[in-house]
Amino acid sequence: MFNRRDVIYSYDGSFEGLMCCVFESFVRKEIPEAIIVGDPLQLSFSDVLEIETDSQKAMRVSRAIPLKISDFTFDTVCKMFLSCVENKDLLILEFLHKGFKYGRNIEHMLADDTVNTVNKAVFHCTHEAHLLKGFVRFSDYNGYLAAVIEPKNKVIPLLASHFTDRFRNENFLIYDKTHRMALIYFSQRTEIAENIDFELPDANAQEEYYRELWKCFYKTIGIKERYNPRCRMNLMPKRFWSNMTEMRDELGITENSANRILQKNERYN
Amino acid sequence: MDIAEKLKILADSAKFDAACTSSGVDRAGGYSDGIGNAAACGICHSFASDGRCISLLKILMTNFCLYDCKYCINRRSNDVPRARFTPDEIADLTINFYRRNYIEGLFLSSGIIQSPDYTCEQIIEVLTILRVKYKFGGYIHAKAIPGASPELIEKLGILADRISVNIELPSQKSLDMLAPDKSKNSILLPMGQITKQIQQNSYDIVKYKSAPKFAPAGQSTQMIIGATPDTDFQILRLSEAMYKKYSLKRVFYSAYVPVGDSRFIPAANEKPPLLREHRLYQADWLLRFYGFTAGEILDEKHQDFNPLLDPKCNWAIHHPELFPLEVNRAPYEMLLRVPGIGVKSAQRIVAARRQAKLDYKDLKKLGVVLKRAVYFILCMGKRAEGLIVTETGMMRQLMSASVVKELEDNGYGGEQLSFFDTSPTLEDRVKCLTGEM
Ligand code: SF4
């Protein structure tokens, strides 16, 4: 019934926009070849259909997912939207087509290729968020806490509830340098800001003091008779190190060479 | 002495204690006007140079000790630098590390100074400052000091998330030899008390909502491996008994790293028995999550683990009468016993086979390690295509990459073994974390 057509959808990159792509593809009874974000003029080989974001249409799709498929599937789609997988938009569309066809059973169709790919991507994303719950390092700036991360997936929304609960009486900021977005928690109000720039200020003496103590603890707690750098690297991939206080020494980063940090980090990706 | 120096000494003397925060306690918003929470699944904040997870500020309050346990780096007769933290210093470090998200909480143990009761009171003091003054809702694991009075242990349990009493060595004989100041009884007594209190407390909580929680993350213990002649079977049977009798959450195994005095135990130049420790953890998972008993994994005739194969593979090749299994029909409990199928993949198989009959390529998507599993399964009545079952071929597939490498390094196998993939996949790494195999 739904044919794959030689057409490319372009949309504005918002979740609502993607839901409208799904809406259109049902109306037009087709599955596009690709879905891209932003400027459609760059491509000329296939037809490009610009999908307007319309909250009414978006609402109809996103309400139908929990109703006609399941809450679990809606949750999967939301997480998939944060994924760094290249064709995530098209995968979500295909996944939802199958979902509306098979209903709740889609949850168990683990051997299906689309379902399997989506599940793997969601796992990659939630797993990265889980790791970061531990690997985020805050610095204290006169009572305000700030941290920088460089995740592959857009994990900020997945970190919000954990950190706002953990630090419910603090004021803090977690900046995602990869996607230029931030989780800001101020006076017990949570906000996710996009398209912003941020640099960590230099640490003051007290902050340096606790950093040094932590590094001292880190160095001491490893048992040298059991030295196992490979195991460590598997469990804590190197791409996280440059933002972790205790690992910067191993990367040869001195605290005042922010530029070098950047370059190094790129090499490890 | 400044704090950095103390921290160095007191972290160094605590480093052999194993701990893990994955506890099953989810405590969102501990104190509304305080700081911290606890996550049931556990959060690793870093990994040390030895690859072990760091989630807690793991320190001793002091490494001065009245006792002289031969396996212990802090024993009275050992010539090491000594230090002691004040309760305020520990609380300040914990809070400042916690705010920076370095740690999930505190793991506090101590050498015994003045008396077991006095030592225990000092630990209680630290916990009280954290919970009352700072309203700290993060995770606290405290060591119950053997010989401390029951009232003090009770106080400790109300302040901590988890308490542990280390059994240290697997038999009374070994204890007599290496820990002359401790007896099996002085260890098992508080362990029993804690178990009772946890159970009693769970009734109280049902009855009175406001009853304070006693060690909500349960009780754990640790055993030192390789300092004494006890066999793997003895150790595993003891773990099994402790899980049953004391409802322990975890038994930790710690490969003995020689710390001097070699009159009794392996000399300082001997390597810690890491493979043995690894096998014990694997067997321990089989006990807790795979429905195995200690007697199935080892027995009187086979007292030690097969160094080449993990305990599950070893069990499977000794039970050819039970295999191959039809994946589309076999009960969940049997799927769990197939090498290459873990808890997650077994659950996925059970869910997915309701939707469609499963083939080998489907199993791969469900996370089954096919190179191992193929020897033990059928899909829709068929063996995997092209599978030739020879004993050496199978053994090679069942051995872990590191074992194969070791054989290679020692001149076995040569080129034939070189096609093994030694780089772990993401899934492998996660399995390593969760201990599935
Ligand atoms: S009582 Fe504890 S700290 Fe003291 S020597 Fe024995 S094991 Fe070590």
List descriptors.
heterodimer; A: 269 residues; alpha/beta; five-stranded mixed beta sheet; three-stranded parallel beta sheet; 9 helices; 16% strand; elongated; disordered C terminus; B: 437 residues; TIM Barrel; 2 domains; six-stranded parallel beta sheet; 17 helices; globular; binds iron/sulfur cluster
Can you put this structure into words, describing what you see?
The complex is a heterodimer of chains A (269) and B (437). Chain A has two domains: 3-127, no CATH class; 132-268, no CATH class. Chain A contains nine helices and ten strands. Chain A has helices at 15-27, 55-69, 71-81, 88-102, 113-135, 156-166, 205-221, 229-235, 258-267; strands at residues 3-4, 7-11, 30-31, 34-37, 47-50, 139-141, 144-149, 171-176, 181-186, 189-194. In chain A, helix 5 (113-135) runs parallel beside helix 6. The longest helix of chain A is centred in the middle third of the chain and has 23 residues, at 113-135. The model of chain A is unreliable at 256-269 (pLDDT under 50). In chain B, 40% of the residues lie in helices and 9% in strands. By secondary structure, chain B is α/β, with parallel strands linked by helices. At the A-B interface, helix 5, helix 6, helix 7 and helix 8 of A face helix 1, strand 1, strand 2, helix 2 and helix 12 of B. Residues 65, 67, 69, 72, 74-75, 111-112 of chain B line the site of iron/sulfur cluster (SF4).
